[in-house]
Amino acid sequence: MSVRHRNDSRRTGGGLSLYSTESEHYDLAIREMADGGKAVVLKMNIGGIRHDQAIVPIEGDTAELVIRADSLHYDFCLRTADGEQHLGSAQSKWLSNEVSSPFTGVVLGLYAQGRGSTRFDDLLITYTY
To answer: 91-108: per-residue pLDDT in tens?
Structure first.
Protein backbone atom coordinates (compact mmCIF):
# COMPACT_ATOMS: atom_id res chain seq x y z
CA MET A 1 0.00 0.00 0.00
CA SER A 2 1.29 3.45 -0.76
CA VAL A 3 -0.10 6.96 -0.60
CA ARG A 4 1.19 10.47 -1.25
CA HIS A 5 0.50 12.64 1.76
CA ARG A 6 0.71 16.41 2.28
CA ASN A 7 0.30 18.59 5.35
CA ASP A 8 -0.57 22.12 4.31
CA SER A 9 -0.12 24.04 7.52
CA ARG A 10 1.61 24.06 10.87
CA ARG A 11 0.36 22.04 13.83
CA THR A 12 -1.04 19.29 11.63
CA GLY A 13 -0.15 15.69 11.22
CA GLY A 14 -1.56 12.62 9.66
CA GLY A 15 -0.83 9.47 7.78
CA LEU A 16 -1.63 5.78 7.67
CA SER A 17 -2.65 3.69 10.66
CA LEU A 18 -2.80 -0.07 11.12
CA TYR A 19 -5.29 0.04 13.95
CA SER A 20 -6.59 -2.61 16.33
CA THR A 21 -7.33 -0.57 19.48
CA GLU A 22 -6.23 2.75 20.97
CA SER A 23 -3.48 0.84 22.81
CA GLU A 24 -2.42 -1.29 19.84
CA HIS A 25 -1.70 0.39 16.51
CA TYR A 26 1.15 1.27 14.17
CA ASP A 27 1.23 4.68 12.44
CA LEU A 28 3.30 5.97 9.53
CA ALA A 29 2.79 9.72 9.38
CA ILE A 30 4.05 13.18 8.58
CA ARG A 31 4.48 15.30 11.68
CA GLU A 32 5.64 18.84 12.32
CA MET A 33 8.85 18.99 14.31
CA ALA A 34 9.83 21.54 16.98
CA ASP A 35 11.90 23.53 14.45
CA GLY A 36 8.89 23.91 12.12
CA GLY A 37 10.17 21.36 9.61
CA LYS A 38 8.37 18.15 8.71
CA ALA A 39 9.38 14.55 9.27
CA VAL A 40 8.04 11.12 8.49
CA VAL A 41 7.54 9.24 11.75
CA LEU A 42 6.97 5.53 12.36
CA LYS A 43 5.05 5.22 15.64
CA MET A 44 4.39 1.96 17.43
CA ASN A 45 1.79 1.68 20.18
CA ILE A 46 1.63 -1.69 21.93
CA GLY A 47 0.01 -2.32 25.30
CA GLY A 48 -0.04 1.39 26.09
CA ILE A 49 3.68 1.81 25.30
CA ARG A 50 4.17 4.54 22.70
CA HIS A 51 7.44 4.57 20.79
CA ASP A 52 8.75 6.58 17.84
CA GLN A 53 10.68 3.88 15.96
CA ALA A 54 11.99 6.18 13.21
CA ILE A 55 11.98 9.92 12.56
CA VAL A 56 13.21 11.04 9.13
CA PRO A 57 13.21 14.76 8.24
CA ILE A 58 11.77 15.54 4.80
CA GLU A 59 12.06 18.45 2.40
CA GLY A 60 8.76 20.24 1.95
CA ASP A 61 5.35 19.00 3.03
CA THR A 62 4.85 15.91 0.85
CA ALA A 63 5.98 12.31 1.26
CA GLU A 64 5.07 8.94 -0.21
CA LEU A 65 4.33 6.49 2.59
CA VAL A 66 4.51 2.74 1.93
CA ILE A 67 3.37 -0.22 4.06
CA ARG A 68 3.92 -3.83 3.07
CA ALA A 69 2.57 -6.82 4.95
CA ASP A 70 2.93 -10.56 5.09
CA SER A 71 1.54 -13.04 7.59
CA LEU A 72 4.17 -12.19 10.24
CA HIS A 73 5.33 -8.59 9.71
CA TYR A 74 4.53 -5.11 8.52
CA ASP A 75 7.29 -3.17 6.76
CA PHE A 76 7.18 0.63 6.72
CA CYS A 77 8.98 2.70 4.07
CA LEU A 78 9.41 6.22 2.78
CA ARG A 79 9.65 6.52 -1.01
CA THR A 80 11.53 9.47 -2.52
CA ALA A 81 13.05 10.28 -5.91
CA ASP A 82 16.22 8.56 -4.66
CA GLY A 83 14.40 5.29 -3.93
CA GLU A 84 12.83 3.66 -0.94
CA GLN A 85 14.07 3.97 2.64
CA HIS A 86 13.06 1.20 5.03
CA LEU A 87 12.01 2.78 8.35
CA GLY A 88 11.29 -0.35 10.33
CA SER A 89 9.30 -3.53 10.75
CA ALA A 90 6.71 -4.63 13.29
CA GLN A 91 5.24 -7.99 14.13
CA SER A 92 1.66 -8.43 13.02
CA LYS A 93 0.81 -10.60 16.05
CA TRP A 94 0.63 -7.56 18.38
CA LEU A 95 -2.38 -6.29 16.44
CA SER A 96 -4.06 -9.68 16.11
CA ASN A 97 -7.34 -10.48 17.83
CA GLU A 98 -5.57 -13.17 19.88
CA VAL A 99 -3.36 -10.56 21.54
CA SER A 100 -5.00 -7.18 21.15
CA SER A 101 -8.76 -7.50 21.40
CA PRO A 102 -11.70 -9.69 20.46
CA PHE A 103 -12.14 -7.66 17.26
CA THR A 104 -12.04 -9.52 13.95
CA GLY A 105 -8.96 -7.85 12.50
CA VAL A 106 -6.83 -4.83 11.83
CA VAL A 107 -8.33 -1.70 10.29
CA LEU A 108 -6.20 0.15 7.76
CA GLY A 109 -7.04 3.83 7.69
CA LEU A 110 -5.99 7.33 6.80
CA TYR A 111 -6.02 9.88 9.59
CA ALA A 112 -5.47 13.59 10.18
CA GLN A 113 -4.99 15.49 13.41
CA GLY A 114 -4.47 19.06 14.50
CA ARG A 115 -5.40 22.25 12.72
CA GLY A 116 -5.13 22.91 9.01
CA SER A 117 -5.56 20.37 6.28
CA THR A 118 -4.11 17.03 5.36
CA ARG A 119 -4.33 15.72 1.81
CA PHE A 120 -3.93 12.16 0.56
CA ASP A 121 -3.38 11.42 -3.14
CA ASP A 122 -2.63 8.38 -5.26
CA LEU A 123 -3.78 5.72 -2.82
CA LEU A 124 -2.74 2.31 -4.12
CA ILE A 125 -3.60 -0.95 -2.38
CA THR A 126 -2.30 -4.15 -3.99
CA TYR A 127 -3.09 -7.62 -2.74
CA THR A 128 -0.68 -10.41 -3.66
CA TYR A 129 -0.65 -13.95 -2.38
So the answer is: 988 888 766 666 667 888
Q: Which domains does the chain have, with CATH numbers?
A: 2-111 (2.60.120.200)
Dist. CA 53–CA 79, nearest whole Å? 17
In 10 A of CB 98, how many CB atoms?
A: 7
Write down the pLDDT at residue 114: 79
pTM, two decimals, is 0.85
DSSP character string of the chain: -EEEEEE-STTEEEEEEEESSSSSEEEEEEEE-TTS-EEEEEEEEETTEEEEEEEEEESSSEEEEEEEE-SSEEEEEEEETTEEEEEEEEEGGGGSTTTT-SSSSPEEEEEEEESS-EEEEEEE-----
CA distance 100 to 24: 7
pLDDT for the residue numbered 102? 66
Asked if residue 58 lies in contact with residue 87, where contact means CB atoms within 8 angstroms, the answer is: no
